[in-house]
Amino acid sequence: MNGSTQKHALFPIKNVIGFGLSLLLTFVAIALGVSHALAFGPVMMIIMGLAVLQIIVQLFFFMHFTESDGPAYHIIGLAIGIINTIAIIAGTLWIMTFNSQVH
User: Fold this and answer.
1) 29 and 47 in contact (C-beta within 8 Å)?
2) Residue ranges of the domains in the chain?
3) Which tens digits make up the pLDDT trace of 58-93?
4) Separation between Cα atoms, residue 90 and residue 102, nearest integer Å
5) Which of 10, 33, 73, 82 is deepest in the core (most CB within 10 A)?
């Protein structure tokens, strides 16, 4: 088997593993939120960590982040997306903080 055939032979297994990990991370976040086992702050931090892990699983198992042969355009796109996300979150927090000081 050549390299291309080997990649395609493992394709369904990789998707099943990614799907299983996605389900596991989702169910852990739901169970943590529903159980009220911890205070609000720690629960939010853990859920945000699980969200980051979910993003990593999606990038590597479904979006084939590391399987590109050409230039690293996908890395540039990801960096721009991260910068935009940080700007939107920071702007939202800034607006919510300012709004709470006005009232």
Assistant:
1) yes
2) 1-67, 69-103
3) 888 888 777 766 677 778 888 888 899 999 989 988
4) 19
5) 33
